[in-house]
Fold these 4 entries.
Entry 1:
Amino acid sequence: MIRRPRAANRSTPHRGAGALAALAIGVGVLVPALQPGAGAAPVADATSATAAASAWLAATAPTGVLTTGGAADWGLTADGVFAHAAGGRGPSAGETATDQLETHLLDYASAPGGTARGAGPIAKLLVVAVVQGRDVTDFGGWNLRSELLALMNTTAGDANLGRFQSKGVGDTTNGFSQALAVIGLSRTGTVPAEAVSFLLAQQCPSGGFRLFYAGPGCTADAAADVDATAMAVQALAAAKASGATGTETPTANGVDWLEVLQGVDGSFTASGPNGVPNTNTTALASQALRAAGRIAAADHASSWIRGLQLDCDLPALASDIGAVAYGPTAYDDTVGGGVIDDLYADQFVRATAEAALGLGAPSFATLSGTTASEGPGGFDCDVPTTSTTSTTSTTSTTSTTSSTSSTVPGSTTTSTTS
């Protein structure tokens, strides 16, 4: 069984000038195109590991609704759908969660009265619908594609031309919402050229993409973000598959930038002053690297994630087999204590939902949850039937809509939650 290496240095390189200066990319150099879904398995038991993560989530939230602080978290529930699709439970647990999202469409994508529109949630729901094979023209009574297109800025000459922006609520759209919108539209038809152009404008000189939008485009490498870059290159793959042009060199430059930022242990670090190596950021990077054919780097990232997953070697945690820790601190504390305690409960749920995609899943450009391939529980040990996790703690997260705070050590992460 693969165990987490006890390396002396678990750190990953920071976005210092020295590291970025090492990345020299010629704009005119011919580069291989990103191949959505390309790549081999990252670790020997990758399929079982992904299925085990999905199984744990399904056991933890049998209704399909994932929670934060005891309250329904619809963006996280959507992440759960993606995890179930990757783990072969799309037709079962994935459908249960998708039904909940459809039922609570207004709670997630609108506001009291139903007139407001959240661009990030609608974009994410569009991807959920296409991954699950739902009718995107009638999801909870909404035509998700039309709703999303109506939120794209079409004002000629405007610095935000092509950007998807919320209406009737505070606009917190960013790199995640733009990438998800491009993915959803690309997989359900064509994506407007303006939307792709706006996304491309967010690429910083070194190749990374920025997360937060201010001004017409990225001009400073300090704004580049690992999570946003991983999502952007997956979005560009989807756009290329739907007919967009001019995406190959920016995609390769983005993937090159990711490889420079990878730690010697395979991990990736979240942005910000409190960023630490974590399974969520590493999972997104692994997806992007695998889709780009950078298999060695993707495998290295996936193996680091796998080393932080609870498995059959931990009988004291038998009911939580398959869960993935956010980072080494949460893993060590949990293994040492023999239980996922209240301090880490929510963090484990979020980490598992997002990290599952980094164990060998295809990119968001091709992910599908319409085919079942689930085993008893993923690993060759007892299926998790109950969970020792609690739903009373909160996790610090930077998402496309909100942040909640906690004292969980090293829990700051950028999430695909919208």
Entry 2:
Amino acid sequence: MKPDHPGPGAPPGAERLSKSDEFIGHGGSGNATPASANQQNSAQRAAVPDVTARRDSSARAGSSSGDLADPIYGALDLGTNNCRLLLARPSRRGFRVVDAFSRIIRLGEGVSLSGRLSDQAMSRTMEALKVCAGKLQRHRVGRARMVATQACRVAENGQSFVANVRDNFGLEIEVLTSEMEARLAVAGCATLIDPEAEFVLVFDIGGGSSEIIWLDMTRFGSRRDVLTGRYDIDDAIVAWESLPVGVVTLAERFDGRTVTPDSFAAMSNAVTELLAPFEAMHRFCERVAGRKVHFLGTSGTVTTIAGVLLDLERYDRKRVDGIWLNTAQINDVTSRLLNLSYEDRILEPCIGRERADLVLAGCAILDAILKLWPAERLRVADRGLREGILMRLMMEDGVWRTGRRRRGRSRRSGNRPNP
């Protein structure tokens, strides 16, 4: 369940991501876990880079006039549950968002049972992609990467659907491998890694699959080496796994509308069984014992938990992205949601009707992760695949900048990753 919180009253396609948002290429340390949600939020405003920087007054004008000095890049993520587009141009400290679009389309609805994308799901998705195609054309995007994930990977008619999208809208969508999906997710949220951490578990709870990635940060001299492009965050990956389970597939299997403590435990146990072979092979419980470890979650599950914890009247990305949670807070929110009926979950501002039957499935996946690898701290990332794509594209073109000029280099030279 990717971060996507337009709220129950928002129009289709709305996303709580300002067109003036700036993705900063370096994060704060955030070493302490605050004791309360209010303290937590206050601390994060100091520790996390400002992702809602001042408005880029030339964003719209430049995009429509074809500003060659600052080309616009695009990233489209067609997931099992969401269709999401992000358009941005390079900035002094990463990139500045020009436009964004997100819509829940449930492309993978029923795929776990039938093995095929349904006509209704494909129709919903085509409508969303029509909007995306219009934005890409209107902003005259210079370079873009468009990807599809688990639903198109496993569905019998996934490739034919992608071909139909190309024929109708001219969008060349690439069906990602599980490994590439995991690597891009890590790249997109790497700026939120605590520089003091020795090991980091990055996870992305999706609609049809969940990516698990362990990073060994001791391989680098400093985290700054990764952010400036001297080293690639890929070099920190020591093991990864793509679990064939996500919020949509788990909710379909166990009935995400009516969840009891027993059915929740059954969902968590089902995920634990999928994680067990991975742990048996890599033995991370032993490897990280006594080390500085934190989790980094990039998914709608953790952003929803953070929003509920903060009692937000409407989802606010500025208050959620980068916030630290502890295990007790996560368990408290999960228990609170378990005590709510499906109808009551709909009324939660950070959940709404489109997510009310999925949120506890996501909580069950997270519960299994936390039980297998206990961690005191988890950082929430309302960023991921799209941001990773944009970062990679800009690094390849030499326009990725992180705010600190180096002697002998021009402002526009950027830094490329090692080949």
Entry 3:
Amino acid sequence: MASTHDTDALRNISMLADLPPWQLEVIAEAVEPVEVRKGTLVVERGSDDGYTYFLQQGEVSLDAADGQNKVVELNSEVARSPVSNLRPRLFGVRALSQLRGIRVPDIVLSAAGCSGRAHNPDEITVESEEEDQRREAESKLSFQLYQDLKSDKAILPSLPDLAMRIRRAIDDEVSDAKAIARLVEADPAMATKLLKAANSALYGGLDGVDTCSAAVVRLGMQTTKQLVLTFALKEIFYNEDPMVQKRMHVLWKHSAQIAAICFVLAREIKGMQPEEALLIGLVHDVGAIAILNYIQKYPELAQDEAALEETIDRMRGELGSMILRKWNFPPAVVAGARDAENWLRRHDRDADFTDLLVVAQVHERLRKHQLDGLPPMDRISAIQRVLGDGATPERSLEILHEAKSQVDEMRSVLRG
């Protein structure tokens, strides 16, 4: 249990100032101290480590990509707000003196409804007793998931060992196609899926292949690695409870559809790896899987289906990114899970994998006429980055209609 001093100190932080005592106690239990020496890089520019930093004593340099830097002397007023909190981070934070502060896991702040913005004193929010109870259960659930993941407890079915061995063998760059094929053949179901992919219209040549080694040669090592991992991921969409498994099946179908759309869109963008896009599409809702696996411990959340969907919508982004970070997935995959439904996400770079995810989800919502929560299409800048300047919703739907056979083919490959 957090001490009174801990919670009083947290109340000095703007975004936490008006939280109820029980929520502050949950956050205080997750707080980690930050104490570093002069010259230490506290936060790396472009990173996303899953924490929000509040620095209290010392002096730091905020280093921008263009080489410019700003020196900030820390004091009680500066400590009320997080430092370099946009993701990926726009500034590196370097200690110019001995430094003290704290960091809080994003997933814990997210469950408390903290978006990183300072509290607006003119904004009044009234919640019913039922909503307050649900919010309390969400905070406790998020903290439990955070604690279990940090202590290496299994909150999801583990990725099959075979898939990880194949991934390591390819990354080592010492195994040839025959060696990789022998590993794949240890799992007949995996071997069948890989052959199906190699003989599909998406990868097929003039002649079919009938051995794993020929499939690996046709697909290439990196494509084989991504596909094997993608096929293995289906196993995490599982729960022994029949009612939860029904919801898992719906989640798998949605994830497979989004993954297939991402794959097809990536094939049209120079420099994009379609198999990486496929993988990102498949794992973007991994946070929802974790919530479903834990939900029976929290009947306040499980008994109301609409409330459960709200909980999943609120928590899955930060939780998913935390899980993928723990699994050592690349930053692009982590970012995709966190921002998959960040419709208004803006940047001035070329289209990235998160842009693909956003566009794929918009397409799927348009196809199903599920427009609630979507902003006007002209405000979703990812559409222009992915489909080109002047792209309209009609044109984007036309593009996917033209590629429907490819989307269906990839969904078939994922089904196995």
Entry 4:
Amino acid sequence: MSNPLRRYPPDLWLLFFGRIITATGFAFSFPFFAIYCAGHLKIPMGDVGAAFAISGLGGALARFFGGELADRLGRKIVMQGALAGRALTSAGIAWQISTGAPFWQLAATYIASNFTGQLFEPSSQAYVADVSTGRMRAESFGFVRMGINAGWALGMILNALVTESYVVTFGITAGVFALSLLLFSIFLREPPRAPRSAEPGPPWTAALANHPFLLLAGAAILLSVVWSQLVAGTSMYASQFAHIPDKTIAWILAVNGTGVAILQIPATRWMGRVGLVPALVTGCLLYGAGYGSYTFCTQPWHFAVAIAVVTCGEVLCAPAGASLATELAPLSQRGRYLGAYMFTQNSGQVFGPYISGQLLQRFPAHPGATWFTIAGIAGASAVAHLAIVKLFGVGKRPPREVEARVEVKAVAAEKEA
């Protein structure tokens, strides 16, 4: 059996530990923003959902441009800018809460924070793609996600144990992002990338002609409506309808991060045997089962079980989707394709919190109206992912090992240039 410390390159380990730190800081405060607005400021859930929808739109645009910037400027500098933005806006939210700022000011800062923070994602995903190859790529995406979710769980647990002050939580988050910026600046190196080649037509011509990628992007929009329920939808429903205390919700959400940390590597190795699209279809169905079961949840342990099912869907869909988008991208345009793929994910996230917020507000006595709708959208995403195999024959088999040889040649060409 190979040494797990040598299974991944040092660059990937650095990103892994960096994501633990950033995710801990994020989870310590941001998932509770909706609870603060709806529970403490008494803002209607529809208005909170609308703020999250605008935030999702900003995040979608950030991911779109972040991928392009990562190809043009480099992975590291875009990640540095995103961390700086997160630190400043987190401090801004802490200051606004302490001074009793109105909801619209808080929402504006939250939207700005999400925009700057989402610039980080396509750059970090492209970084993973640059330092991994073939069958190891999906596992590498999963490995980094394991770090993200370990940090997510740690942040939730610390929030439940440390403080009830929203000013303190967002202030600590600002400090954690500032520390992450310092560590990334010192230790993370820019990875070797394939040289940018001249495009035969206007930008995005090749991507728009890539029909399997377009179908993958459409499926991702549907799926992101579903997975966006983890933070805003879950917290609002558990708090306002099931009357579960805020600190208990933190422990419930920690099930997700803990589950991903435990299951991610076995899940990615399984998808390496069955193929990316079968893993995506299975994950969509698990998402639907988990969120659909919210209809019957009244106790904390009910939500914990439902979140565990959702987590099983997440550990399949997240790395498989990113890995398939990478496979469909030209070597020199990975940042662009991953940015576009993540743009579609956030486009769905624009509608996710808004849909659940509106349905919960309009049908408060019928939770199935909300959660069976979300489950149905997950089923539609499963069908769309399955169509990628049926129509184009892509993603059925495990990633090609031959890709490793192609990438070695690309890196060598860059060094000789």
